[in-house]
Amino acid sequence: MADWKYVREERTKITEGDYRLSIVDAQEAVSQSSGNRMIVLTVQPNGSDIKIHYYIVYNEYFNRNMTQFYDSFNIEGGDFNLLTWVGAVGAGRLKLDDQGYLKVAWFINKDKAQKLPEWVGEMPERQTVTDLDGFKDVSDDDENPF
Q: What is the pTM (predicted TM-score) of this model?
Protein backbone atom coordinates (compact mmCIF):
# COMPACT_ATOMS: atom_id res chain seq x y z
CA MET A 1 0.00 0.00 0.00
CA ALA A 2 1.28 3.48 -0.95
CA ASP A 3 2.26 5.99 1.72
CA TRP A 4 -0.23 8.84 1.09
CA LYS A 5 0.11 12.17 2.86
CA TYR A 6 -3.13 14.12 3.18
CA VAL A 7 -3.82 17.55 4.65
CA ARG A 8 -7.34 18.96 4.41
CA GLU A 9 -7.51 21.92 2.04
CA GLU A 10 -10.63 23.81 1.01
CA ARG A 11 -11.20 26.46 -1.60
CA THR A 12 -12.14 29.98 -0.62
CA LYS A 13 -15.92 30.07 -0.87
CA ILE A 14 -17.72 33.08 -2.21
CA THR A 15 -21.43 33.72 -2.52
CA GLU A 16 -23.62 35.54 -5.01
CA GLY A 17 -23.10 39.27 -5.14
CA ASP A 18 -21.05 42.08 -6.63
CA TYR A 19 -17.28 41.53 -6.93
CA ARG A 20 -14.25 43.11 -8.49
CA LEU A 21 -13.06 40.81 -11.27
CA SER A 22 -9.71 40.34 -12.97
CA ILE A 23 -9.39 39.00 -16.52
CA VAL A 24 -7.05 36.01 -16.51
CA ASP A 25 -7.65 34.93 -20.12
CA ALA A 26 -9.45 36.09 -23.26
CA GLN A 27 -9.77 34.04 -26.44
CA GLU A 28 -11.76 33.94 -29.65
CA ALA A 29 -13.87 30.83 -30.23
CA VAL A 30 -16.94 29.55 -32.06
CA SER A 31 -20.17 28.76 -30.21
CA GLN A 32 -21.00 25.06 -30.46
CA SER A 33 -24.72 25.73 -30.16
CA SER A 34 -25.14 28.58 -32.69
CA GLY A 35 -21.92 28.48 -34.72
CA ASN A 36 -21.44 32.20 -34.03
CA ARG A 37 -18.04 33.70 -33.29
CA MET A 38 -17.57 34.68 -29.66
CA ILE A 39 -15.08 35.94 -27.11
CA VAL A 40 -14.49 33.69 -24.11
CA LEU A 41 -13.39 35.64 -21.05
CA THR A 42 -12.01 33.91 -17.98
CA VAL A 43 -12.37 36.10 -14.90
CA GLN A 44 -11.30 35.65 -11.30
CA PRO A 45 -13.29 37.25 -8.47
CA ASN A 46 -11.44 39.35 -5.91
CA GLY A 47 -10.30 37.32 -2.91
CA SER A 48 -10.89 33.97 -4.61
CA ASP A 49 -8.96 31.40 -6.59
CA ILE A 50 -11.92 30.32 -8.74
CA LYS A 51 -12.11 31.12 -12.43
CA ILE A 52 -15.37 31.79 -14.26
CA HIS A 53 -15.96 31.74 -18.01
CA TYR A 54 -18.09 34.44 -19.61
CA TYR A 55 -19.13 34.30 -23.26
CA ILE A 56 -19.72 37.35 -25.45
CA VAL A 57 -21.35 35.94 -28.59
CA TYR A 58 -21.39 37.81 -31.89
CA ASN A 59 -25.17 38.16 -32.24
CA GLU A 60 -27.80 40.92 -31.97
CA TYR A 61 -26.65 41.71 -28.38
CA PHE A 62 -22.91 41.84 -29.17
CA ASN A 63 -22.51 45.64 -29.23
CA ARG A 64 -24.51 46.10 -26.02
CA ASN A 65 -22.53 43.38 -24.22
CA MET A 66 -19.19 44.72 -25.46
CA THR A 67 -20.09 48.25 -24.36
CA GLN A 68 -20.92 46.95 -20.87
CA PHE A 69 -17.63 45.00 -20.82
CA TYR A 70 -15.50 47.94 -22.04
CA ASP A 71 -17.10 50.32 -19.52
CA SER A 72 -16.55 47.94 -16.62
CA PHE A 73 -12.92 47.04 -17.34
CA ASN A 74 -11.86 50.51 -18.55
CA ILE A 75 -10.84 49.19 -21.95
CA GLU A 76 -11.16 51.53 -24.92
CA GLY A 77 -14.23 50.73 -27.01
CA GLY A 78 -13.31 48.86 -30.18
CA ASP A 79 -10.06 47.45 -28.73
CA PHE A 80 -10.03 43.77 -29.76
CA ASN A 81 -6.39 43.08 -28.86
CA LEU A 82 -7.40 40.33 -26.43
CA LEU A 83 -3.86 39.81 -25.14
CA THR A 84 -3.88 43.29 -23.60
CA TRP A 85 -7.13 42.57 -21.75
CA VAL A 86 -5.42 40.08 -19.42
CA GLY A 87 -4.88 41.69 -16.02
CA ALA A 88 -7.59 44.33 -16.48
CA VAL A 89 -9.80 44.80 -13.42
CA GLY A 90 -13.53 45.48 -13.59
CA ALA A 91 -16.56 44.31 -11.65
CA GLY A 92 -19.57 42.09 -12.09
CA ARG A 93 -22.63 40.57 -10.46
CA LEU A 94 -22.19 36.86 -9.72
CA LYS A 95 -25.24 34.58 -9.56
CA LEU A 96 -25.73 30.84 -9.25
CA ASP A 97 -26.79 29.05 -12.43
CA ASP A 98 -29.23 26.11 -12.62
CA GLN A 99 -26.49 23.66 -11.62
CA GLY A 100 -25.32 25.72 -8.64
CA TYR A 101 -22.19 27.20 -10.24
CA LEU A 102 -21.32 30.88 -9.98
CA LYS A 103 -21.63 32.74 -13.27
CA VAL A 104 -21.25 36.38 -14.27
CA ALA A 105 -24.78 37.75 -14.68
CA TRP A 106 -23.56 41.14 -15.94
CA PHE A 107 -20.66 43.56 -15.66
CA ILE A 108 -20.86 46.61 -13.42
CA ASN A 109 -19.90 50.08 -14.66
CA LYS A 110 -16.56 51.29 -13.24
CA ASP A 111 -18.25 54.26 -11.53
CA LYS A 112 -20.59 51.97 -9.54
CA ALA A 113 -17.72 49.55 -8.87
CA GLN A 114 -15.92 52.22 -6.83
CA LYS A 115 -18.27 51.36 -3.94
CA LEU A 116 -16.98 47.77 -3.82
CA PRO A 117 -14.24 46.72 -1.37
CA GLU A 118 -10.66 47.33 -2.46
CA TRP A 119 -8.73 44.58 -4.25
CA VAL A 120 -7.34 41.95 -1.86
CA GLY A 121 -3.66 41.12 -2.37
CA GLU A 122 -1.45 42.25 -5.21
CA MET A 123 -3.34 44.24 -7.83
CA PRO A 124 -3.26 42.51 -11.23
CA GLU A 125 -1.26 44.29 -13.91
CA ARG A 126 -2.65 44.62 -17.40
CA GLN A 127 -0.56 42.94 -20.09
CA THR A 128 1.09 44.90 -22.85
CA VAL A 129 2.14 43.64 -26.26
CA THR A 130 5.56 44.50 -27.59
CA ASP A 131 5.66 45.81 -31.14
CA LEU A 132 7.10 43.02 -33.25
CA ASP A 133 7.47 45.05 -36.47
CA GLY A 134 11.26 44.62 -36.32
CA PHE A 135 10.87 40.89 -36.88
CA LYS A 136 9.08 41.26 -40.23
CA ASP A 137 12.38 41.79 -42.11
CA VAL A 138 14.04 38.65 -40.80
CA SER A 139 14.70 36.44 -43.80
CA ASP A 140 14.02 32.74 -43.72
CA ASP A 141 17.20 30.95 -44.74
CA ASP A 142 15.44 27.58 -44.98
CA GLU A 143 18.13 25.91 -42.93
CA ASN A 144 17.32 23.78 -39.94
CA PRO A 145 19.36 25.05 -36.99
CA PHE A 146 19.50 21.58 -35.42
A: 0.80
